Amino acid sequence: MSNRMWGGRFASGPAEIMEEINASIGFDKRLAPQDIRGSLAHVAMLGQAGILPPEDVAAIEAGLKSVRDEIEAGTFAFRRELEDIHMSVESRLTEIVGPAAGRLHTARSRNDQVATDMKLWVRDTLDSLDQQAADLQRALSQAALKHAGTVMPGFTHLQSAQPVTFGHHCLAYVEMLARDRGRFRDARARLNECPLGAAALAGTSFPIDRHATAAALGFDRPTANSLDSVADRDFALEALAAASICAVHLSRFAEELVVWTSAQFNFVRLSDGFTTGSSIMPQKRNPDAAELVRAKSGRIIGALTGLLIVMKGLPLAYSKDMQEDKEGTFDALQALSLCLAAMTGMVMDLEPNAEVLARAAGSGYATATDLADWLVRELGLPFRQAHHVTGRLVGVASAKGVGLEALSLAEMQEAEPRITDAVYAVLGVENSVASRTSHGGTAPDNVRRQAQAWIERLG
Ligand code: ARG
After folding, report:
1. Could you give the CA distance from residue 321 to residue 114 in angstroms, rounded to a whole number?
2. For ligand 1, which residues put their CB under 6 angstroms from it?
3. How many whole angstroms separate alpha carbon 430 and alpha carbon 362?
4. How far is the CA of 47 from the centre of ligand 1 (A)?
5. What letter would DSSP give residue 92?
6. What's this protein's family per the entry (predicted)?
7. Active site (annotated) includes residue 278
8. What pLDDT does 364 receive?
9. Quick one: which of 86, 150, 95 has its CA closest to 115?
10. pTM for the structure as a whole
11. What is the ipTM of this complex?
């Protein structure tokens, strides 16, 4: 049997394998709420514009609502031969209201319909990702406030660099997430033009009111060019790009959690709720959730590159290739949502091991820069010379297998005779972090103030 929706010029139906490759209903059925919302806005506009008589509008509206009820109740029968969600809804509508249902598709094509549905879905999802990222910021800011003065090693090249505080480290991710949220909102703002009414590609000869449908669906305005409206998926790409960057941030933090929870580091403890055991090794507390956050960034980035590649060779306007925008976009944004939730859970009951962190903060000559700065400040040495003197002292201490604070004053004075015992004060990690009071620095007072400000801002 030929397709009821477009089978007029076909003598027979599609081959089995054609039906299989063509069908998107398996994954675009999740666009049902958006599809019905779009159709309700469209039919109301057709009525207001005098294109459809009120009785048809009323019948179609009632029919669309019953279809929506059936889908919500799980009683709707999705059938592969109907290809996609748009034809599935319309086909059921026809069964419910009869031939008047056929008038719904006046001045519309599946091309503007699917672009509208996808935009509505991506828009809702960006809004909820923004909220979830705010939840994670809140959890991190609380941890930052609690641990504003908990010293830990700061790393460059994963080598001990300078002491920082655990709170400061948490706030670094709060800042990253703030930019991620800015990107979600920017993507939303650029996306928010309505393609509905662009029809197949050229617009329509019916006197439709695109401003009305745009407003009814919460868009700022209708799109300006009918070809562009149905031909681009840059809104999905931009959402995926923003999601990828956010996922990379989460992945880096996840990687840190994996390293920090190892027995060798033992910097933090994840709660039982966010670790798993081993079926053979009883001692294990594996950071699976963190590992999966790290791994899921791969599929999110994959969805972005996948869709970029789908789009890059397509001539204007619509090509069926664009049906491939959906699975990756749905999957990736859903994965990011799960990652944000898992990260928030992990952070909420994360416990830093303060003693281990403090010990580690002082090892590896992490206060060498403090010593060099002291030589500059107290003795007036040029920084390069102070660096050199400090380097010699690190060499002496390292040869003895001790920290800088274990060198005697005499040993210090061999490198620079004017050093006094006041120098020992700056070799402690607490003093080191307390001295970093520059704007954005790791001093506990700074961190406390910033954590407080974030908590207020996030509400
Ligand atoms: N299922 C299609 C998609 O997701 C809907 C648009 C179909 N348009 C067409 N001209 N065949 O892209």
Report:
1. 13
2. 24, 28, 84, 110-111, 114, 318, 320, 322-323
3. 9
4. 25
5. H
6. Belongs to the lyase 1 family. Argininosuccinate lyase subfamily.
7. yes
8. 86
9. 86
10. 0.94
11. 0.98
For residue 194, list its beta bridge partners: 222
**Residue 370 to residue 389: CA distance in whole angstroms:** 12
What does the radius of gyration of the chain's CA atoms come to, in whole angstroms?
31
Q: What is the mean pLDDT of residues 119-135?
A: 98
For residue 292, name the pLDDT band (cuts at 50, 70, 90): very high
Residue found by looking up tokens 């954590």 in the block? 451
Find tokens 């002491």 and name the residue. 163
Q: Whose CA is nearest to atom 2 of ligand 1?
A: 323
Residue, of 181 and 7, whose pLDDT is higher: 181
Per-residue pLDDT reduced to its tens digit, 251-273? 999 999 999 999 999 999 999 99
Residue 420 confidence (pLDDT) = 96
Token digits of residue 319: 């090509």
The structure tokens listed for 297 are: 């960034």
pLDDT at 1 over 60: no
Q: Which residue has the tokens 């000559």?
A: 365
Q: Name the residue with the closest Cα to ligand 1, atom 11.
A: 320
Expressed in angstroms and rounded, the spacing between residue 83 Cα and the centre of ligand 1 is: 9
Q: Are 195 and 228 in contact (CB under 8 A)?
A: no
Q: Which of 66, 128, 262, 278 is catalytic?
A: 278
Amino acid at 308: L
* 3-class SS letters over 203-220: CCCCCCCHHHHHHHCCCC
Atom in ligand 1 nearest the alpha carbon of residue 83: 1
Per-residue confidence band for 2, with pLDDT thresholds at 50, 70 and 90: low
Please say whether the beta carbons of 323 and 24 come within 8 A.
Answer: yes
Mean pLDDT for the stretch of residues 355-365: 93
CA of 311 to the centre of ligand 1 (A): 15
Facing residues of 34 across strands?
none
